Amino acid sequence: MAFTFAAFCYMLALLLTAALIFFAIWHLVLPEYLIHAFFCVMFLCAAEWLTLGLNMPLLAYHIWRYMSRPVMSGPGLYDPTTIMNADILAYCQKEGWCKLAFYLLSFFYYLYGMIYVLVSS
Amino acid sequence: MSAPAGAPHPHAAASARIPPRLGAAAAPAGPSPAPHYQNGPAQNQMQFPPGYGLHPQSYAVPSGLYSQGPGKTAPLPLESQYGTDYYSGHYPVPTQNVVTLATGPGTMNMQLGSQQVYGRGLPAPHTVGSTPGSFQGGIASSASHVHTGIPQPYSSFGNHYNSPVVPSANSSIASQGFPLTSSHYAMSTALGAVYPNVSYPSVPAGDPYGQVFTSQSTSVITQFKENSFPGQNTAVNHPQQQQQSPMGYKTSSWATPGLQSTQDNLSQNHIGSLAAVGNPSNAVADSSSSPGKQSIQLSKPSPAPSTVSSGSVSARTQPSADQSTDPVASGTQPPDLLLQEGMQYDDYVNNPASSAPTPSSSTSDDEEEEEEDEEAAIDSSSTTSSASPVPNSFDVLEGGSYPGETLDALSSSTSSPAPAPSIPQATKPTKPFGYGYPTLQPGYQNVALSSGAQPSNPTYSGFQQYAQQYPGMHQLSSSLSGLSLQHSSQQPESLRPVNLTQDRNILPGTPVQAPVPNLNSDLKKLNCNPDSFRCTLTNIPQTQALLNKAKLPLGLLLHPFRDLTQLPVITSSTIVRCRSCRTYINPFVSFIDQRRWKCNLCYRVNDVPEEFMYNPLTRSYGEPHKRPEVQNSTVEFIASSDYMLRPPQPAVYLFVLDVSHNAVEAGYLTIVCQSLLENLDKLPGDSRTRIGFITFDSTVHFYNLQEGLSQPQMLIVSDIDDIFLPTPDSLLVNLHESKELIKDLLNALPNMFTYTRETHSALGPALQAAFKLMSPTGGRVSVFQTQLPSLGAGLLQSREDPNQRSSTKVVQHLGPATDFYKKLALDCSGQQTAVDLFLLSSQYSDLASLACMSKYSAGCIYYYPSFHHTHNPSQAEKLQKDLKRYLTRKIGFEAVMRIRCTKGLSIHTFHGNFFVRSTDLLSLANINPDAGFAVQMSIEENLTDTSLVCFQTALLYTSSKGERRIRVHTLCLPVVSSLADVYAGVDVQAAVCLLANMAVDRSISSSLSDARDALVNAVVDSISAYGTISSTSQQSALIAPTSLKLFPLYVLALLKQKAFRTGTSTRLDDRVFAMCQMKWQPLVHLMKIIHPNLYRIDKLTDEGAIHVNDRIVPQPPLQKLSAEKLTREGAFLMDAGSIIYIWIGKNCDDNFIKDVLGYPNYASVPQKLTHLPELDTLSSERTRSFLSWLRDNRPLSPVLHVVKDESPGKTDFFQHLVEDRTEAAFSYYEFLLHVQQQICK
User: Fold this and answer.
1) Could you tell me the residue range of the domain that residue A103 belongs to?
2) Where are the transmembrane segments (chain A) (predicted)?
C-alpha cells in the first residue's frame, strides 16, 4: 500500500468533484470546465485510462459547447438576451441536472478508485 | 432597480484619468482632425484646468452626501434607496468645472462664431473681436425666444395623455425638483447674468491665451458664486412650491431628489470652486440643506378628485332587470358578472373629490412587490383612510383624442387630468352607467351557445346568491365545447372544408378580419381589440398534447402601445390587483360577493378594497363590477409612487449624426435638421425635456448648447479609444431654455461639414459617448449612420460576398459579427436608454451587427437603402415623413411589460425589440406606438378545470409628461377539447406572423434553409393533421378548413419575402432589415408587408364606400396577387406596407390617366412619378381619398411609386405578386401540389 500519483489524482478528483457538484447547480461554467479539464489531464498523466475514458465524452461535450457559444467578446456561455427563452432555459437546466448526476456518480467512483489504487498497490 | 445600480459606472475613475490622457492625446490629435475646423478665428482654448486633478474629490463628496442625505430627508424609503443607488454612481462632473475651465488639449474648444467654419447660413452675430456689448445683445434676443414654445407640447401631445400635468404649476416643480435637470436650472437662472461678462468673446486668433485665460478665470469665479446662490434659492423656495402644488406623491418624490441634487450641486460647485479659485463659500451647502429637509415634510397633500360620468355618457343604459340568470345552469346561480360596456368613456369629466384622502402609508394591503423590481417594495399602496364614508380618490378621464378639450379643461392646480368644469358635475344627476347586475360569464353558462341572448331574467338584487365554483364549470365545459360547433354562428363557417387545389379564388374581396373568439356575446364586447392583442388560436386547446396534434403555433401578437382614440384612464390611489399573482382587476374576474373577487388567472379570492366599492361613474356605492376597470379590457392607470424606482425621468433626446464624407454626400443632414426644426415644438415632453447632439466622423464632436452662450460651441474629442465627455452638463440641454441655440445649430449643421474629406466613421466611440451622456437619465438616442463603422470600438468588416446574393444554398452572416453593439444595447437598456438606428447607406453596412444596438435596447430600426437626397428623391421623402412621425409620436420611457396568463399556460419565447429580464418580464427602455411584439406560449398544465383562459399584458411606463402609467390589456379566450374546435378558431394572420418571427430566429440560430423548411412543414403538418379529422377523405384533394384556407398562400408569400427568399438576388442588408421588420412590426403592418393588398383603381365607384371624416372612401375589392389579374386596360394599386405602387397598364384608359395622373396619355407618364396631382375630377378625388385613407391607417407614411411597364420599379412591383411563379420559387398552385406531395409521403 503506497500513496501513488494515481491515488493522489483520485483524491484530488474526489475533492474537486465535490466542488463541481455545486458548480453544476449554480452554472458556474468556466470554473467547472477548467476543473474538469484539469483532472482529466491528471488522469492522463497517471495513466488511468478507464477513468479518463469515462470522462472523455463530457470533456468533448464541454469543448463543443464552448466552441458553439453565442458570439461574445468576453468569456462566458450564456447570452443574456436569449437565455430567458423557454427552450434554451429548459436545455440549460436539463444540462445542469444531467451533469449533477454525472458528478455525483463519479464522486463515488473516484472514492472507490482511490481506495482501490491504495489497496492494490 | 437592479440595473442602474448593478452596472457600476466608472465615471469617476474615467474622469480621474482624464488629465494624463488629455496630455498624451494632445499631440496626435492635433494634426488630423483639426485643419478643417480650425481655419477660422476660432481659438483653441488649451488650458490645463486646475480643476481636473480634483475631480475625484468632487466625486467623493457628492456620494457622501447622497448616502446620508436622502435617508434623512426623503419621505419615502424608496427614494432614499434610489437616490443612493442611482445617482451616486452617475452623477456627472460638475458643470462648472468643465464648462468654463473646459476641455483639455485633446479637446478643441471652438466656437461656432466664425463664419469661415460654419458658412453663410449662420446668423453669426459676432465678428472677430466683437465686444461684450454685442454679445449681450445676442443673448437678449435669444432669451426672448426661449420660452415661447413651452405650452405647445401640451396641446399637440395631449391627445393620448390628456395630460394631467398642469403646465404652470408643474413646470416649476419639475424644473427645480428634478434631480438631473436641476443643475441646469440652477445655472440657467444665473446665466443670464453671468455670461455676458464671462464668456467667450471671439478673440482674434493671434493671441488666444493671455486673454482667454484671464477672461476664463474671472468667469470661473463669478460663475461659481452666482451659481451657488441660485442653487440655494431654489432649495429655499421649495417649501412654498410644494405647498402650492397639490400633487401628492409627485411633489414629494420629485422634490426630494431635487433637493438632494441641489445640495449636491452646491457642494460640487463648491468644491470645484475651491479647487479652481479658492472660493470660500463654505456655508452655502449647509444652509441650503436644511430648508430641504423641512420642505419635504411639508409635502403630501393629495386631493384626489374623483370622476363622474358626465351627461352624455353613452345612451346604452339599460334597466338593471336586464340581468339574466341561467336557467340551464345547475342548482346554484352562476355568479359571474356580465360586464358589458365598451369603451365609452369618452365623455367623462372629472369631478372634484369631496375629500382629500391622504394615503396612509401603512396598509394591510399587499406587499407591493409589483411590477417587477421596478416598483419599490414598500407598502405605501395606500388604501384611503376610512374616515370618509365615500372612498373617492378616483378619477376617470377620457382617453385622449380631444387634446383641445383637455387643455381647456385644465384647471390650474389639480394633478388629475382634465379637471373639467367641475362645478356643474357635482350636481349633475348621474346616468346609470352600467347595466345592473351581471349575468354569467360566458364560459360558465351553457346559454352561451345561443349566441349570448339571455333567455330569462329574474332580476338580481345582490351578490348573495353568487356561489361560483370552478369545479362546476368543469362539467359544463365539455358540453360547451360539444355544442359550440353547432350553435355558434361563426364556427361552422370556419370549419367548412375548402379544397385548396380546386378553389382558385380563396382570397376574400375585403381585407381579412381577425376571427372573433367564440365567447358569450357580452364577453365578446368586452374583449380586447384584436388590433392590440391577438392570439393565434382563438380557441385554446386544453392540453399540450392537443396543441401538438393540431401542429399550429400558439402565441400572442401584441401591439400594446398602439395609438388609441379612446382609452379610459384611471387615477386611483389603490390599483386593485390580485394579491398572489398581481393581476390587475379586469372584466373577466368574477365577483363572489360584494366584497370579494376571484382572480381569473390564479383563482385566488381577493378582497375588494373599500375604495373600489364606490363607482365614480354612477356615483353609487357597492357596485364594484361597474367600475371602469371591470368594464374595459384596455385601461390605463395612473400609477402611484409605488410603481417608481426613481422619479419619472424627463424626456431626453439625443441625436447622433454621421457627418463623414459619405454622409455629407448622401445629404441626409439637411432633411434631418429641417425635420427637427419643424418638429422641435412637437417633440413629446414637458418643461424638463432635454436634447443634445453628437456628430462623428473619425472623431466625435459634441455641442455645448448651454443657455447663455451666444453660439453653439463645438467640442471635438479625437481620443476615440477612450471617449469622454468634455462638458457633461451642458451637452444635454433643456429644449425650451436653449431653443435658440438649438435652432442655430440645426441651421448650421447641414453646411458645417460640406467640405469634409473624412471618410472614416467612428460609430462605436460615438455610441459610447452617447451612452455616457444618457446614462444619468435615460431617454432616446437616435443614431444616423451611413456606412460601415471603420474606426474605434465596434468597427466592422464587410462580410457580404456579392456573388452569394442569389445563392440558393447557404446565406451566411445573418447574425452579428461582434457583440459590441449588443453589449452596448444591454448597457443602454440598463440605463433606460433606447437606441434607434436610421441606416441610410448605399453599400453594405452590416445591419446584422448594427441592428443589435436597437434590438436589445427596445429601439427601432429604419433602413433607407441607396439613400441620396437628389438621386433618390423618394427615399428622401420617405425619410422626411418617417422622421415627422418618429419625432412627434407618443413615447413612453423606462418601461417594463409583463405578460400574465392563466395558470397552466406559460410563456415560451418573446419576439420583438427588448431585453427579457425574467421569464415574463420585458424591459423596454422606450416604448413607441409602432412597436409590436410576439410571444410564443406553451401549455404546461392541462386546462381541464377551466373553460376560459385570460392573458393580461401590463405595460408600465413613464409618459413624456413625467407621469407613471400602466396600460393594461386583457384578452379572454375559450378553452376547447376537440381538435376540430382548435382548427375552427385559428387566426391565420396571427399564426403566419408568429411563424415569421420563429423563422427569423431559426434562420439566425440555424440556417435560412432550415427556416424555410420549417415554414413549409408548418403548412404540411397542419393540413395533414386536419386531414386526419376531417370527414371528407378524398386522398387526391388538399382539404383545409376555411379558417386555414389562406395559410398556404401566406406561407408562400413569406417564403418569397426578402427575408426568406433564396435564388433571387437579395442584398444581405435588405434581408436582415426584412427580418428586423418581422420581429418588430405589429401584425397589421406586417401582414401588408407579407401579403400586399392589390386593388383595381381605374374604375372606382362609390359602391360599398365608407365615410371617413366627411369623405367618401371607395372600397374596391381585393385582387389576388397574380399577374393574371393585371389587365392592360386597367390601373392597379398595390399596398405593400411601407410602399404603395400604382401600376398602369399599357392600354389603360386615357381618361383615367388624364383625370388622375394629369398626363394626356400613357406614353407621357414619366418613369418616376411619386405623387398624384390634385385634379378636380371625380376619379382623381376618389383615387386620392382612397390613397389617403390607406395612408392614414399606418404610422409610417408609405412612398408612392407609379409603375409603368418599362419603368425600373417594375421588377419590384412584380416580385410582390406572390401567387406567380418566379425563376426560383413556386407559384401558388405548384406550392399546393408540393404540399400535397409532402402530405402523401
Assistant:
1) 5-68+80-120
2) 7-29, 35-64, 100-119
